């Protein structure tokens, strides 16, 4: 989707204390071999603040930077992949009440780890030029996995779950970056990869049935009849989808690969990151945000915003640079966005970086 006159006016992040992997191993939470294979250094763990409260903290930071008045906002979009609070309660309105406190819609976006990119996609439509008076939209995303319903260290072989809150102020007035294109594509025939042999009714999500992604992936492989090779084929097909989507999104943005300075991606463990995203794109890890996310873990809905904020705040991208945001979620679905940096971050100049392999 080609985007016109949509900007990022503010960016906010909340990252809790980091638990070194050595400590997780010493405590018996994470097996030594798995810790080494992950490539991670530490993981962000929040034991006090809820996910919506972390979103509020990030939103207040983004709003202060953006400088918009509360009355400028058309809506709030909030997301999270894990429980946000009591059932039949609205986390988006909790965030809205403690930030903008305006009588505007507050939507919950349920698009897994692509939710922040999907929110940008929706924001581009909500702030379209033919909608007078709509000047800004607040995007928030947060998760806290410190619950008995998930084992952040061992739930998935592909990632270790991190707690965080992030926020973006999307604006038609200007900002530190311009959104040039955003989109997603899916392989719906692979939805069963993350379903495995779990029943749909009753939904298997309660205290006696913690979330475990790994067993579902193995169950799908066995049921498909292909065993481990079925998963290899699925990963290869998804990699092709990622590459096709990236090419399409860059073309819509009018940007060539030689103009992509950095890539902000999902915070998978090292092997999964290469197999699902970096290798299909031909992007070396040094051009991604692995150097930062390996200290945080997989922040679910927050990875792309954390990566972009880190690149911009530390001066690793500057005015005129393009950042490709790319990620994956269940479905299977890939998402991409292209942003151009239009204002210098707190730290400049940017050090030279190697470009993507031709």
UniProtKB/TrEMBL annotation:
Cytoplasm in keyword set: yes
Top-level taxon in the UniProt lineage: Bacteria
A Pfam family per the record: ACP_syn_III_C
Record-annotated Beta-ketoacyl-[acyl-carrier-protein] synthase III N-terminal domain positions: 109-173
GO biological process: fatty acid biosynthetic process; secondary metabolite biosynthetic process
Span of domain Beta-ketoacyl-[acyl-carrier-protein] synthase III C-terminal: 250-341
Record keywords, A-Z: Acyltransferase, Cytoplasm, Transferase
Annotated region described as Disordered, given as residue ranges: 193-213
PANTHER family named in the record: 3-OXOACYL-[ACYL-CARRIER-PROTEIN] SYNTHASE 3 (PTHR34069), BETA-KETOACYL-[ACYL-CARRIER-PROTEIN] SYNTHASE III (PTHR34069:SF2)
Name this protein carries in UniProt: 3-oxoacyl-ACP synthase
Species: Streptomyces kanasensis
């Amino acid at each position: 989707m080609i985007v016109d006159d949509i900007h990022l006016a503010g960016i906010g992040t909340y990252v809790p204390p980091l638990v070194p992997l050595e400590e997780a191993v010493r405590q018996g939470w994470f097996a030594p071999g798995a810790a080494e294979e992950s490539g991670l250094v530490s993981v962000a763990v929040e034991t006090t603040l809820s996910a919506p409260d972390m979103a509020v903290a990030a939103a207040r930071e983004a709003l202060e930077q953006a400088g918009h008045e509360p009355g400028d906002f058309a809506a709030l979009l909030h997301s999270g992949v894990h429980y946000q609070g009591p059932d039949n309660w609205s986390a988006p309105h909790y965030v809205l009440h403690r930030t903008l406190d305006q009588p505007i819609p507050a939507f919950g976006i349920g698009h897994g780890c692509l939710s922040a990119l999907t929110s940008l996609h929706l924001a581009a439509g909500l702030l379209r030029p033919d909608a007078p008076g709509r000047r800004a939209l607040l995007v928030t995303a947060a998760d806290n996995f410190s619950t008995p319903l998930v084992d952040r260290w061992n739930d998935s072989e592909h990632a270790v779950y991190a707690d965080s809150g992030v926020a973006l102020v999307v604006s038609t007035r200007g900002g530190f970056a311009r959104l040039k294109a955003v989109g997603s594509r899916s392989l719906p025939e692979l939805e069963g990869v993350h379903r495995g042999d779990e029943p749909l009714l009753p939904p298997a999500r309660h205290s006696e049935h913690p979330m475990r992604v790994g067993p579902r992936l193995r169950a799908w492989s066995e049921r498909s009849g292909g065993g481990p090779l079925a998963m290899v084929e699925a990963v290869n097909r998804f990699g092709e989808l990622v590459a096709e989507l990236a090419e399409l999104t860059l073309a819509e943005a009018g940007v060539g690969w030689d103009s992509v300075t950095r890539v902000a991606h999902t915070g998978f463990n090292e092997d999964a990151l290469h197999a699902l995203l970096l290798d299909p794109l031909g992007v070396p890890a040094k051009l991604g945000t692995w150097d930062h996310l390996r200290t945080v873990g997989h922040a679910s809905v927050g990875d792309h915003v954390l990566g972009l904020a880190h690149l911009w705040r530390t001066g690793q991208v500057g005015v005129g640079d393009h950042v490709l945001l790319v990620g994956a979620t269940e479905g299977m679905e890939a998402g991409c966005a292209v942003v151009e940096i239009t204002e210098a971050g707190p730290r400049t100049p940017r050090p030279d970086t190697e470009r993507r392999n031709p």
